[in-house]
Amino acid sequence: MLVVVLPFPENRTVGTIDWIGSSYDHLGPLPARGDVEVPDGGEVALEIHPAAELDGHGGRTVESASVSWSPVDVRFLDQLPSDSITGLSITYAVQPGSLAALAHLAPGLRRLTLAWTDLTDEALPHLAMLRHLAWWQSFGNHFSDAGVQQLVALEELDHLYLEEATLTLAGFAFARRLERLCRLGVQDAMLSKRDLKTLRRQLPGVDVG
Fold this sequence. Notes:
Layout: E1 3-7, E2 15-19, E3 30-31, E4 35-39, E5 44-48, E6 52-53, E7 62-63, E8 87-90, E9 111-115, H1 124-127, E10 135-139, E11 159-162, E12 183-185, H2 193-202, E13 207-208
Parallel strand pairs: 5-8, 8-9, 9-10, 10-11, 11-12, 12-13
Antiparallel strand pairs: 1-4, 2-3, 2-5, 6-7
InterPro entries: LRR_dom_sf
């Protein structure tokens, strides 16, 4: 089997790495630290979160415990092969200015989760470069109605969960131009029952809720 080496930082664990059919399934995901070998062309998922390596199970298990919760610097992403990561999940605040490295993964990235990442509109031009995304979920950020219109560039999206408390009905205007969209999640958005009805009328054939 051909493999690809993912060069993560040597001095810290930045999260966990996993893939379908991993031989480490019974041990849990691998720590994303140092050089990690993954199958070439496999569906590889990276979760970036505060992680502490444990000694048990051959050092293969990680947990979020006794770690720093300061914003993460994700500039290490631009050292990975650009088509090596299929799914990416970031589950805590990102250091301002480092998110530009995420665009490097655009050729391979299909799924993205941004949970409590504390991002603002400043991040959206970089996110709009992830042109092959099919699935997006975000919440706990500070996007504006005007800012998220840049996401119209993500033409391959079929599932979009833009669950941001800062958005109103106007923020979802761009969704009408996403021709492949079949599911739109709007939990936590500032939508009245009337707004929700309007949005469903504007997006026939899309499951909105």
